[in-house]
Amino acid sequence: MISIRQLSMRYGDLQALDDLNLEIGKGEFFAFLGPNAAGKTTTIKLLTGLMAPTGGCAEICGFDIQKDPLEAKRRIGYIPDVAEFYDKLTPLEFMAFIAELFEVESGKARSKTPELMEQFSLIPYAKQRIENLSHGTRQRLAIASALLHDPEVIIIDEPMVGLDPKNARVVKEELKARSEAGVTVFLSTHLLNVAQELADRVGIINHGRLIALGSVEEVMSGAKGADQQTLEEVFLELTESAEADPPIEADSEDLK
User: Fold this and answer.
1) Domain 1-75+154-160+182-256 CATH assignment equals 3.30.750.24
2) Which of 12, 56, 156, 214 has the least C-beta neighbours within 10 A?
């Protein structure tokens, strides 16, 4: 569902992303990990068509995000870490706007909007202007609106930012349920416990290069002294290395 081939991005002299190759299948829950400035946000902007790469390509459900952006974007639900809204709208009006943007059938929009707003505790704020909502409430609205058109691929950057434990649990359960129903989830996060809890595979990026790839167990088993290490220790060992080793690849046939 997501195919990334030799994807690269250069800002002047800075190589922000260096020949990234990655295949993520239907229904796979993939967690993308890395320190600050590793290339995670750049990758997400390239996957969603917010920027054009300086090399390589990315496909969503078989559609090149640069060559066929409308068809690719129809299939994406994108949730940034800090969402932008038309602040003078209410959540109800914003959901209606998203439904029209994605050409959601009117009957479906009328039924799904209250369901999602109830699920993400937005009913009390339905008719308030978005400019008056807290960051956590805005984040929940971003998630609800991204799910309204039932995307085939969900791309989400730091979804738990600003969420209380109750709503964080709702988000995690919903993302996992969608993945189990066949939706591909690409999650970028600094929260290693979230990746360990939810992801089928993880990828670790550093200095624009993928340095580890596989299940949590496989990534840990490929690190030095893994028997005595936690995922956090393995992550720090890999990302703090002066020179990144070649990627640790999963050999398991069921991950292909």
Assistant:
1) no
2) 12
